[in-house]
Specification:
The protein is mostly helical. It folds into two domains: about 90 residues, DNA polymerase, domain 1; about 30 residues, no CATH class. It has five helices and two strands; from the N terminus they run αααααββ. β1 and β2 form a beta hairpin. It is globular, with a radius of gyration of 20 Å. The protein starts with a helix and ends with a strand.
Length: about 130
């Protein structure tokens, strides 16, 4: 285990991050390090953003995966490296195409009479007859 990885794990444990979150952060940073062929500590915000775009556009990764990269990088820079890189403070935003559509639209029943649908939050579902 590299000293940087151990510092990252120690910092996450001290701050009480869940074990699964710790694993996700370490995995996200390890994949990014393999992609660039260098330690994540040597990267800047522009390179991290380029990697996130690569994951989205070329690899078709989910918003959740990209958000893990952003969160892990932010944690590494702030709490382990004690660096504040401009650009890392922004959180990724879900794209319009990634938003969930109402269930009624997805099922093709949005054309039904409104009384046949019940609304719960922003999602709709059909009332069983």
């Amino acid at each position: 285990m590299t000293p940087l990885r151990q510092q990252m794990i120690d910092a996450m444990q001290v701050r009480g991050l869940a074990v699964r979150t710790q694993q996700a952060y370490v995995d996200a940073l390890a994949r990014m390090a393999r992609h660039f062929g260098c330690s994540p500590a040597q990267l800047d915000a522009a390179q991290i953003e380029a990697y996130m775009l690569h994951l989205s556009r070329e690899r078709g990764r989910s918003f959740s995966t990209i958000n893990h990269v952003a969160s892990a990088s932010r944690f590494l820079f702030r709490h382990v490296l004690k660096r504040e890189d401009r650009g890392l403070e922004r959180r990724p935003q879900r794209g319009i195409g990634q938003r969930h559509q109402p269930v009624a639209v997805a099922l093709g029943i949005a054309h039904m009479h409104p009384s046949a649908l019940v609304t719960k939050g922003t999602h709709q579902r059909r009332i069983a007859a």
